[in-house]
Design brief:
alpha+beta, Alpha-Beta Plaits, five-stranded antiparallel β-sheet, 5 helices
Length: 200
């Protein structure tokens, strides 16, 4: 028997070949559940990715704001340091001015005398006070050679608190020399009648 005879004896059929089964049809219920979960997780991953991108964008904006605030703080610190330096310079100048003022005041006191217990009329003017001082020097203290030109200023000291207690009179001479010449041969403190005088 030849090969051709063998082929001729093989039964011939017209039935189509069976199709490959659908993978979904052969999956078990557990496998289907796993696939469903995976599909759902894929959607969640997209959401998480979008959220992360938004957070990164927000963090970038926040970092830029932090950098801006740092620069602002640095600038404010520089301004504060400059202001502190200006304050220290101003305080130093004020202290020097105060010391100079105190020195000038102390020096100017060498031109002055204070006169106590001189009656103070109600409403006394500076002019009247000056005339009282000139009269006092001439009549009570025996200083005849004294005029208005010898005096730089004459005034009562402070505010009057009690009507029956006169305020001291400060007499400022035009110079220390003028003062010394007018009260020479007298002690640093001297009394005449009820009047008390003190230098400075």
């Amino acid at each position: 028997m030849t090969a051709d005879d063998t082929l001729s004896q093989t039964p011939q059929t017209n039935q189509p070949l069976p199709q490959s089964p659908n993978p979904q049809e052969i999956l078990t219920p557990v496998e289907k559940l796993i696939l469903a979960k995976l599909d759902g997780n894929g959607a969640n991953i997209d959401k998480v990715t979008a959220t992360i991108e938004r957070m990164e964008s927000t963090m970038l904006v926040l970092q830029q704001e932090v950098d801006r605030l740092k620069r602002q703080v640095t600038e404010l610190r520089k301004q504060q340091e400059a202001a502190q330096a200006d304050i220290e310079v101003a305080n130093s100048k004020a202290l020097k001015a105060e010391n100079k003022s105190n020195a000038n005041e102390q020096y100017s006191r060498n031109y002055n005398i204070r006169i106590y217990y001189v009656a103070e009329p109600e409403g006394e003017t500076i002019r009247e006070c000056q005339e009282t001082v000139l009269k006092l020097f001439r009549e009570k203290l025996g200083v005849k050679q004294i005029t208005e030109r010898d005096l730089d200023a004459v005034h009562r000291q402070g505010r009057r608190l009690q009507q029956n207690q006169p305020r001291p009179i400060i007499v400022c001479f035009v110079s220390r020399k003028s003062r010394e010449e007018r009260i020479k041969n007298r002690k640093k403190r001297f009394v005449s009648a009820s009047v008390y005088c003190q230098q400075g």
